[in-house]
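User: Continuing from earlier, I have the next pair ready.

Assistant: Great, send them over.

User: Here they are, in order.

Assistant: Folding the first of the pair now:
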Amino acid sequence: ENIIALKVKGDSMIGDMIRDGDVILVEKTEHLSEIQPNQISVISIKDENTCTLKRIRLGKNKDEVTLISSNPSYKAITKKASDIKVEGKVLALLRSYKTDIVNFST
């Protein structure tokens, strides 16, 4: 009940070997306090109609949160803690390897 599967869209976490099209297993959480520093988490940002997958770093006073991609092409995003909602923390990664069928003759 507390674990959901989500399909990843985008390449912001390729440094953690999470690729576009992968499926992640996520444990639902409701509070920022349930997330460990630098843990990969699913976050929704206030006034945006989407979720993002990032590492989380709390500011000194815990009133700011920095969302960090593992792809160096993306800059870190800093938001007020009140402007984000933790949807869950990543538990596992599932990847399907698709192969084409090739006919070999001997």
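And the other member of the pair:
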Amino acid sequence: RYYYNQRDLLLNYVRKDLKERYVGSLIGFYWSVINPLILLVLYELNGAPVIALHAIGATYLASRVAHAAGMLRSAGPSIGRVVGTVGSVTCLVVLAVLNVMRAVNG
């Protein structure tokens, strides 16, 4: 309920973070959205089980929400930001590895 009441502030923090992170980058902001989607599509095209796609997608989304919630709680390091970052990166690495394994093993 707290996060729902603070959703405008949360969205502003997310926008600010994305703008600062990708300043000067040609497609930086879009890449942060497109990259996970590309990895999920490739994993699906490689014949991944539906439950695995949903689990990885839900974990990635939960990680991004945790990161944003951590930004809402404090300007500096926080547990939410750490959990969100580690979860997001882990999901992307797992997707990349699974795609390579499926491509190599046919």
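Worth noting for the second one:
The helical segments are 2-5, 7-21, 28-45, 50-73, 79-105. The chain is about 85% helix and 0% strand.
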